[in-house]
Amino acid sequence: MSRATIVIIGASYCGLGVANGLLKSESDKVKIVLINPSDKVYFNIAAPRILAKPEFFQSSQYLLPIETSFSKYPKESFEFIKGSASRIDTASKVVELSSQQPPISYDYLVIASGSTTSSSVDGELAPFKPMKDHDLEVSISSIQKAISNANSVIIGGAGPVGVEFAGELAEAFKDKKDTSITLISASERVLPMLKEKGSLAAENALADKGIKVIASTKVANAVRSASGSKTAWVVNLDNGEQLQADLYISTTGALPNSQFIPAEFLSADGWVNVDENLRVTGGSEDGLIYALGDITTQPLRTAIKLADQIPVVVSNLKVAILGTGKLVSYNPNGSFMMVVPIGESTGTGQMFGWKPWGMMVSMIKGRDFFISKAAGMLGLN
Question: 136-162, pLDDT tens digit by residue?
Fold first, then answer.
């Protein structure tokens, strides 16, 4: 039996998870080709602390090498390609790369290219997620330096990343004088995906740290002021108010990394359409292409939900490769769980319908943002 070539685009949580899941049990039957712009994976769960507190972690703790972790598998079972996909040619079953590298043929294709945040195009460049066209280490170092030199910061977006980042900034600024942090929330309350008790707990914790929250308001635009001015950003709100700060950092929304994906696979706003088996829909590929993670139209892009998608894709690829078994479905429903640290010692969230204590959030995530478990969570140990 010849090896089936599975090309995986994207080496973050989902891409790495599928690669490891197939190699652990079928390394003699598959050839995994993993394509990623960087040869390191960014443990971006910890991004709010990484960016706000440069001294807290070493870069080696959150930028982890990809290739070395796959050395335990046979050489003929795995290949890593550092590069960016530029086009999927479904007729020829190849992935074309943006550099001068030759196209990569596939028997099965897994799209796990993920998303990036609006901070890549709006406000000060802040890598809360990997950004294809920017060097991660340089980008992280640059925003860390900008934050350390700032006294005032406006944060657009009061979802989990915005709230966590605000809490980290407040602690980073605690020894500075005349500082201010403002959080802009488009919704009536911060963390609107939580039950009201969880949101109120977040608002109280933010207030305790001296963070101003402006609710039910959106950022209309943010403009960097002329050089030489002490104030670097002018932020205009949709209520007509104008704010000024040394930095404006956006944490709102997500942008799909889908520029290379055929239009027939995409929703109107650029996300990949999948069925209940996480097979890409819209073409005639008959189960040859799968997608999972942030890139799909599936709701609730939390780490827990994404982890649930990995075994579905692994199982269904095995069915296709081995020709036995039944396809399994992904069920996005079930308990909603989220923990949101607000600094190192408190936080909020939702677990099995109830709000965890601040100290519990600190113990679960707030102490190190899972950095100590990063390699295991990514399958890189």
Answer: 899 999 999 999 999 999 999 999 999
**Residue 327 belongs to some domain of the structure:** no
180-184 vs 338-341, strand pairing mode: unpaired
What integer pLDDT is reported at residue 34 of this predicted model? 98
Residues 76 and 38 in one domain: yes
Residue 321 has pLDDT above 70, yes or no: yes
Rounded CA separation 45/125 (Å): 17
Find the CATH number of the domain harbouring 128: 3.50.50.60
Burial 308-343 (b: 16+ CB within 10 A, else e): bbbebbbbbbbbbbeeeeeebebeeeeebebbbbbb
* Contact assessment for residue 116 and residue 217, using Cβ atoms and an 8 Å cutoff: no
The whole-model pTM stands at 0.94
The range of the structural domain enclosing residue 361 comes to 117-254+337-378
pLDDT tier at 355, thresholds 50, 70, 90: very high
Domain total in the chain: 2
Q: Do 346 and 372 fall within a single domain? A: yes
Are 163 and 302 within one domain? no
What is the C-alpha end-to-end distance of the chain, expressed in Å? 30
Of the candidates 336, 306, 52, the residue with the CA atom closest to the CA atom of residue 191: 336
